[in-house]
Design a protein that fits this description.
The chain is 72% helix and 0% strand. It is an all-alpha fold and 110 residues long.
């Protein structure tokens, strides 16, 4: 699988941002996994009491859409930093997982 050209650039920007603030020392796998969990929970919080129909329309409200985009960005930022620290190519990991799932859960014939 070809690596997405923006992924390394974004990971570099995140690393440079952390380094400039002397935060890299805190970016251990444990801390980044914890931060990723917290940010994922903040995304879930937006949807917590919405009906399925309301959740499907969440992006139609500009203020809520902004919150959703910010939380998605936070989740992705921590995931990319986590992957960088552990030298994981997230797109390759995803592709390999899809391959395994296609074998584990074959589509019904017909």
């Amino acid at each position: 699988m070809t690596e997405h050209p923006d992924l390394p650039r974004l990971q570099r920007r995140l690393a440079e941002f952390a380094a400039a603030r002397n935060w890299a020392q805190y970016h251990t796998p444990k801390n980044l996994a914890s931060a990723l969990s917290v940010e994922s929970s903040e995304l879930v919080e937006i949807f917590q009491w919405l009906t399925p129909e309301e959740s499907a329309r969440v992006m139609s409200d500009p203020a809520t859409a902004h919150r959703v985009r910010d939380e998605v960005a936070d989740v992705l930022a921590y995931l990319l930093q986590f992957c960088a620290v552990l030298d994981i190519d997230p797109l390759t990991a995803l592709s390999e997982k899809i391959d395994r799932n296609e074998h584990r859960f074959p589509a019904p014939e017909g």
